[in-house]
Amino acid sequence: MTVIFNPPPTADRAVTDKPVRHPEKAHRPDTPVLRKPDWIRAKAPTSPEVAETRKLMRDLKLNTVCEEAACPNLGECWKQKHATVMILGAVCTRACAFCNVATGKPAGVDHDEPDHVAEAVGKLGLNHVVITSVDRDDLADGGAAQFVKTIEAIRKSSPATTVEILTPDFIRKPGAIEAVVAARPDVYNHNLETVPRLYPTIRPGARYFTSLQLLARVKEVDPSMFTKSGLMVGLGEEKIEIMQVMDDLRAADVDFLTIGQYLQPTRKHAEVKSFVTPDEFKAYETLAYSKGFLMVSASPLTRSSHHAGDDFARLKANREAKLARA
């Protein structure tokens, strides 16, 4: 979602013989790129820990959303050896206008991947891990079984590690949500990403109410499971629309909301319509808490997995405090 540390655009295919990362966007006109304000700054990913984490991921043949989505927090998180693993490959079957993950036809499922993820968790010494994936509309279960196997592998090798998952919408994949919930992740995250009005242009392969229903279904299956969702701002949404999404999420009993600034990966992606100020993010945070969320993280560089471990500890504490007051 950002260009801060993004590599240069892919060279001409005839010269490099590499596949185009976003073939569906190749012929789109370039969008304007706004100058980033002073409050959007991130640390360069140059520490020894970053190099060590990258080597570990390559040795275990693992992908990270930190790299594939060009996350601005990579330097900070990887310095602490906190990486968000992206399972089911690095090629997505969707073509969202905001996302830097490659689009195309994915390879087959790597059956060793769950054990490799568990090994990485152990070597990094993670107390809390976030596992996400590309969309895999080509699979009968949307990749749900791989989530289950990965959770089980982590539980077996690192039983004290808490597991947070960020799944696709599993649209038209009956039984997928229920299978993943049965594996008992500590947090089930699925991002709405933007307001309903913008779905046709920003998230064309998804449906707002399908994503909302997924979050509601998780609570139906297991009311005790923490649920989480995230939004990007700066895409042209109105404040009243963000307020409505907050109400929809609370109606689905979602516990945790993240809100961050959208940053376009390339000129072929959706353009940034505005940079939301820190004061506006603070106002969104206050508003969200007033609507009953147990936990809210809202800032320009907030991302779904940023500070996820610390946030999970606060989330648990906030629920316990709420129950004590009841």
How would the blueprint of this fold be written?
Layout: H1 13-16, H2 48-59, E1 63-64, H3 65-68, H4 74-79, E2 85-87, E3 91-92, E4 102-103, H5 113-124, E5 128-133, H6 144-157, E6 162-166, H7 176-182, E7 187-189, H8 199-202, H9 208-221, E8 226-233, H10 239-251, E9 256-261, H11 278-290, E10 295-298, H12 308-325
Parallel strand pairs: 2-5, 3-4, 5-6, 6-7, 7-8, 8-9, 9-10
Antiparallel strand pairs: 1-2
Helix pairs in contact: 5-6, 6-7, 7-9
Question: What would you say this structure looks like, in words?
Answer:
It is a single chain. Helix content is 37%, strand content 13%. It contains twelve helices and ten strands. It has an eight-stranded mixed sheet with strand order 1-2-5-6-7-8-9-10, sandwiched between helices. A two-stranded parallel sheet has the order 3-4. It is globular and about 45 Å long.
Task: Provide a short characterization of the protein structure.
[4Fe-4S] cluster 1 binds at residues 66, 71, 77, 305. With 326 residues, this protein is α/β, with parallel strands linked by helices.
Q: Characteristics of this structure?
A:
single chain, 326 residues, alpha/beta, 8-stranded mixed β-sheet, two-stranded parallel sheet
Q: Which strand order spans the largest sheet, edge to edge or round the barrel?
A: 1-2-5-6-7-8-9-10
**Tell me, what's the shape?**
globular
How many strands, what sense, and barrel or not for the largest sheet? 8 strands, mixed
Number of strands: 10
Structural class: alpha/beta
What is the mean pLDDT? 89
Organism: Ferrovibrio xuzhouensis
Subcellular location: Cytoplasm
Pfam family, one: Radical_SAM
Pathway: Protein modification; protein lipoylation via endogenous pathway; protein N(6)-(lipoyl)lysine from octanoyl-[acyl-carrier-protein]: step 2/2
